Amino acid sequence: MGADQTIDWHAAAASALEWWRDAGVDVLVGDDPFDWLAAEGPVAVASPLLAASPPAAPVAPTAAMPAAIADFLAWRIAETAPEAEWRVPIVAASGPADADLMILIDCPERDSADSLLGGAAGRLFDRMLAAIGRSRADVHLASVCAARPTVGRMPRDMEARLGEIARHHASLAAPRRLLVMGDAASRAILLANVIEMRGRLHALNHNGGKTTEVVASFHPRMLLERPALKAEAWRDLQLLMARTKGEEE
User: Fold this and answer.
1) 4-60: per-residue pLDDT in tens?
2) Which of 33, 117, 118, 189 is most exposed, with the fewest beta carbons within 10 Å of its own?
3) Matching Pfam families, A to Z (predicted)?
């Protein structure tokens, strides 16, 4: 996923260790033995986790929205975007659009007008990514609202339209996994709040037969306000990455 990067691995490792400590991780292995060298078996079409909740309905392309991901990303930050009338900065999605992992949040942070998840919430987010061996460079990060609403939360009168746009975005990107962080993102994709959707994988079906596995978790902003939830968020991240062991691009 592409460009050469210079990464301070010592800082990245220290950040990941700090996140694990805050999440309550105190051992490096589980109680049960696991053969890490064993070949990964085929993924069942109807696994128990996916069957735990009914799959969401297929996402049909909307005539008003571009049907190609590059065109859609340009349209999403153009003057025709629903948020353009707010007259505040519109923030583009970041990271490769073809990444295997997409992350959806509600809107840009108050203290970050040029990128998603800046400030203190962004620093915590970076530590969370490092803890699962990922970085912003290899995930596709997007928001339901491309601009920050004046009141700081999703306008209820636009929720349905922005949810439709978010689902279309996810359908075009068609990642293997999608992490929705916070209630607004969870409602946009799964039509319910995080607390109802946590703890299991959900299936988001796309036209053409592709399926994205969706995990719901807390927004980093919530974790800063309620640090005790970090242990729950760590379980969500483990669920998100559990099916990727042994996978190679």
Assistant:
1) 455 666 666 666 666 666 666 655 555 555 554 555 444 333 343 443 444 444 444
2) 33
3) UDG
Q: Which pLDDT tens digit goes with each residue over 177-196?
A: 999 999 999 999 999 999 99
> What is the identity of the amino acid at 89?
P
**DSSP for 148-200, written as a single string:** --TTSS--GGGHHHHHHHHHHHHHHH--SEEEEESHHHHHHHHSS-HHHHTTS
Residue 236 maps to a domain = yes
- Comparing C-alpha atoms, which of 118, 90, 106 is closest to residue 153? 106
Where is 230: in which H helix or E strand?
helix 230-242
Handedness of CA 184, 176, 69, 140 (dihedral sign): positive
Domain that holds residue 130: 48-242
Q: What is the CATH number of the domain that holds 140?
A: 3.40.470.10
**Number of domains making up the chain:** 1
In degrees and rounded to multiples of 5, residue 141 shows phi and psi of: -105, 125
